[in-house]
Amino acid sequence: MTAFDDLMAFQHETEALSQVSMRLGWDQETMMPRGAAHQRAEEMAALESVLHRRRTDPRLGDWLGAIDDDLLDETGRAQMRHIRRSYTRATRLPETLSAEIARVTSRAQGIWAEARAADDVAHFLPTLREVVRLKREEAAALAMGGDLYDALLDDYEPGATAGALAAMFDRMRPRLVGLRERIMGSGRAPAPLSGHFPEAGQMALSREVATHFGYDWRHGRLDFSVHPFTSGSGTDVRITTRVDETEPLGSLYSTLHETGHGAYEQGIDPAYGLTPLGAGVSMGVHESQSRIFENQLGRSRAFCSWLFGRMAEVFGTAGAAEADAFYAAVNRVHSGHIRTESDEVHYNLHIMLRFDLERDLIAGRLEVEDLEEAWNTRFEADFGVAVDRPRNGLLQDVHWSVGLFGYFPTYTLGNVYAGCLYQALRAAVPTLDADLARGHAEPATTWLRSEVQRSGGLYEPAETIRRACGFAPTEAPLLDYLDAKFGEIYGL
Amino acid sequence: MTAFDDLMAFQHETEALSQVSMRLGWDQETMMPRGAAHQRAEEMAALESVLHRRRTDPRLGDWLGAIDDDLLDETGRAQMRHIRRSYTRATRLPETLSAEIARVTSRAQGIWAEARAADDVAHFLPTLREVVRLKREEAAALAMGGDLYDALLDDYEPGATAGALAAMFDRMRPRLVGLRERIMGSGRAPAPLSGHFPEAGQMALSREVATHFGYDWRHGRLDFSVHPFTSGSGTDVRITTRVDETEPLGSLYSTLHETGHGAYEQGIDPAYGLTPLGAGVSMGVHESQSRIFENQLGRSRAFCSWLFGRMAEVFGTAGAAEADAFYAAVNRVHSGHIRTESDEVHYNLHIMLRFDLERDLIAGRLEVEDLEEAWNTRFEADFGVAVDRPRNGLLQDVHWSVGLFGYFPTYTLGNVYAGCLYQALRAAVPTLDADLARGHAEPATTWLRSEVQRSGGLYEPAETIRRACGFAPTEAPLLDYLDAKFGEIYGL
Hints:
The structure is a homodimer.
Chain A: H1 3-30, H2 37-55, H3 58-66, H4 74-92, H5 95-118, H6 121-143, H7 148-156, H8 162-184, H9 199-212, E1 222-224, E2 230-231, E3 238-241, H10 248-267, H11 283-297, H12 301-315, H13 323-330, H14 347-363, H15 371-383, H16 409-428, H17 432-437, H18 442-451, H19 461-469, H20 476-490
Parallel strand pairs in A: 1-3
Antiparallel strand pairs in A: 2-3
Helix pairs in contact in A: 1-2, 1-3, 2-5, 5-6, 6-7, 8-20, 9-10, 10-11, 11-16, 12-13, 14-15, 14-16, 16-20
Cofactor (chains A, B): Zn(2+)
Protein name (chains A, B): Metal-dependent carboxypeptidase
Binding site for Zn(2+) (chains A, B): 257, 261, 287
């Protein structure tokens, strides 16, 4: 056994324990009895404490010091890159802080769900204040004098900085605002779908569509949760959705979104299982897969024409009189409150709002007491309507309750990457529209698997996208796609 | 912090991690995608390895050496008794063996399920051979020259020995055989229930009955599994059942059985949560709770009279024309193949069969190749009918696949304890029959909670029963109860 072999054996066990943590997280959101929340927080804290000790184990330092990366092959060097990054981050975090964050966020998530159900911001704020305080502490320990927010962002998108993202957002915003204004001034206002769409039919359709997009049920399952998510890597990758019987698109496109995340994890080379390369390389790349499944493929005119017919079969109505009206309803641009129900034009404005607020929270420029007012003011300015109730505003997302600060901007980065990939995909799969018009996305998802998903953590995030597309990722393809698509729908 | 405080803090984290292992086990049987089995085995092995290192941590030895139990209160001394016993057992087991057992049994359970579904003994035997080999190794490491089987038994029933159990079985067997023969010669043969009992109704009724028996849904849930079980302690105690639409009693009484196990865990003093006292004290005492729920209460004439009416409401038929016939059907004595569907008279004969076979396997007097023949021969001798297919014989129970050797006899010990407790309960709750005739068992289950369940691991198993009953447990009350009950039903 060389030091590298010893290190990889140790890492294998750590990865397995991380997967256990995934299972617990999934259970908490889908199956756990309500009264078990406090004990579960203790269980999560104990496991997080074990993981933290492993991630900071002095033997890791010894192995990392003993291994000459230049003597390894490409895969080995990539493994080392991940392990070195993780070790550096972990050794900067005190174990007590790590365990406290696990305990507090586990509890906070339950309190957030109660507050959301009751539309009661005050019920959530004391806990959120505690989470923000702990995340500031975490950021300070990680940043070592650098930017606090960048230190958190780096955990989700290695190599990205708030400055570079803000610059990209600045380039995107005028075009998005311009597009939005032209749409709102177009005089066209497609009707939303109407009708009743029973839960059982929605779930059956969700399963069917996930299957057509290549989701592997032998290694996954679909359940309900308050907020849809994907959990797990390797051969156990589970997705969730939520259902509203008056509005079938929310559930269906949530499922397609999570199917993209799930297909990414399921599509990684099995040889990387339970190693640092065996999971999606960053949240931005992850989101590129969920977004291209959901939007560029799922909300295409071709796929919508199939979906229109299939929904009519399943529910007796697709909720619109004809395929054109259905496609316009699926892509209806509206100044709605909920990020996850947002259209492709407004979506990135939701992200920019959260990005700015959470940067201010972490920097200490904004206090939790003032957050709701800041949210509501900014929302009205950007979207032209007021927040009507907290569950449609500050309480809509689970992220902050579980300590995900620095995560939101990766959604827009994912959209940007999806725009690039879609341009390359159209060139690589000329039958794309014909496939989608039959409800089948497998030629497209097979290309994504071989060009993006299969490599797992082998390359850095931006390099992963560059290799698939043949060019360095920029925001231009996404913006061009949006202009063309919505220009056509709204006759601009 | 004293050494005792340090020890209890360490133990708290260990108990929390043990609960994590419970969640994983539950998930594996109820929710896990089929293709995740191999990865799950790695996850379980990693967690088991962590737990084993904690259970053998040298600091435990230091703390145990530094603490003078005589200076502690009764609770503290009981905690120490559990921790010392666990440490002694754990330090005798090599970590590699412990991890290998976790890995092999996790896989073996899936193979057993496949073999059972396909009625294919040969598919299971190579894995079972491996499990037996590992359990012999485990027993040898634990026994240190003593009896191998006793060493395994001690894990489930501290203080019990195979010799003492065999002696008790020898006293019980003639009376059970005599009762069985009188019943079979009585000329009475109550008809089983007939009809169709849809799954949804069975599950609704199972939930209703569990509620009436005091199961706490805030801290538990009911799902399907191949083999019903109870999982977890403290505030997260889950039960499972299985449903056959042609035979409603199997599901209902399985649920009642697991409700007894679950109520025990839920009934333990919350102050003992995530400590060694916070779980049922032994499998025998656990089984006393499941058995008294299922049999002495659930199969009583009084409760059956309520159930007869309720089933007629739920299903349109109770499967029998009148309450007397229903009660006789519920308590029908028949030489059936399946232990979990067995009647109270034959049940302990099932146990004695398994007890003798597994003692011989562990002692090396019987090889796995010869197990099916040994099972079938013994079964025909004891029950008067032949085994018709492996799933009705050797493949019916999950236990051996997951390494549970030394567990079966605790079922009969539980029956014996239930007999004792029922005698005491009738004296303590004079309204018992009237309560049960209204479908309500809560006065009885409240007595069990305060007299047996609440104390958790505070007293040794036999002492737990003695304190509740006021006398040292013997087999006589169970046998007297069986003679009286079945004498009346069969007119003996």
